[in-house]
Amino acid sequence: MTRRLTLTQFQGWLTHATPELEAAAVKGMRSAALYLNRTVVLEISQTEPRPAVDTGELRNSVNVTMVPDGAIVSVDAPHAGVIEYGRRPGGRQPPSQPLIDWVLRHPELLKDGMKAQRAALKRQTARAAKVVGKAYARRAARAQGIPGREVAARGVAFVIARSIARKGIAPRHYFAKAWTRSEANMTAAILLAIAKTGSWKPTAKGRIAIQTMFKVGPKGPGAP
Where are the chain's structural domains? Predict the structure, then answer.
């Protein structure tokens, strides 16, 4: 998911700009991109209904790449688009391994999973006892042992994956919210950089042109 800030989006009113003015505009957009980068990281940490933080991969994948005519702000984590735009209900189940790893990092979920596995083993033993006798069923249960962490995590992950497939995932819109919060500051950064050249004074038309550029909003893979 990326958002690029470049001169091409408002060069219509900058056609007669001097090289100094263009350089100042690019510098301003790069400052705006750095500000947006920090705001996106902050929004990830405080997004509702809960922070989108577990291993820190999403926050650490927020990057700014400087290009000749501006800057590119991107979020490169594999799940960046899912957290931003959500997931529609009725789709396929998500991959199990990331969910298993997530459950293993959360003891409270793992504890519930192991409790459920023990209850399932108890029910299985009771059914077996009716067929082969209580003594044999107990020996078989002891041989099988208490379900391990991996088995319990797989069970919990399966339940979560099935729920995601049925209900989907609500969007967090952390990037869109960060963009909206940053609009005024990004506009100010560009206007300030241009004004510092002393060769151009921001006009109402110029200010509106820059603000309009930021109203377009972020786009990227997974956008509806």
Answer: 2-86+170-215, 96-167
